[in-house]
Amino acid sequence: MGRIVLAGIELYARHGVHAEEEKLGARFVVDVEMEVAFEGKPDAIGSTVDYGAVFRFVQKLATEQRFYLIEALADHLADAILERFGEIRTLVVRVHKPHAPLPGVVRDVFVETTRAR
């Protein structure tokens, strides 16, 4: 098994429980860590997961539907990625909300979910 990581997919979306979050939107960051059986296979895109396709899929999914909770967004992404990309054996998805509306300074808030076949 080998590991492929898409770290720091930045996107603009309207997730959150507050009306202002729907109206104004915010920056979100998604990390996707995938374990794939590619070692010893040919030097061809068909012998691994196309991480460009995963990137585009994450961007599309994370911006086409609004979620109140980043937990729900992370679950949605993880389930859809695993369903779409059969080459992935295990998957970790993190959704960061770096500018979460909190009553103080916090560098980052994120949730993490894991899936395996």
Description:
By secondary structure, this protein is an alpha+beta fold. The protein has a single domain, classed as GTP Cyclohydrolase I, domain 2 (2-Layer Sandwich), CATH 3.30.1130.10. It has helices at 19-24, 51-64, 70-84, and strands at 2-13, 26-36, 88-96, 110-116. Strands 1-2-3-4 form a four-stranded antiparallel sheet. Helix 2 runs antiparallel to helix 3 (70-84). The radius of gyration is 15 Å and the shape is elongated. It starts with a strand and ends with a strand.
Task: List its traits.
lyase; elongated; EC 4.1.2.25; 3 helices; 30% helix; single chain; alpha+beta; FolB_dom; 117 residues; GTP Cyclohydrolase I, domain 2; folate biosynthesis; 4 strands; 7,8-dihydroneopterin aldolase
List the helices and strands and how they pair.
Layout: E1 2-13, H1 19-24, E2 26-36, H2 51-64, H3 70-84, E3 88-96, E4 110-116
Antiparallel strand pairs: 1-2, 2-3, 3-4
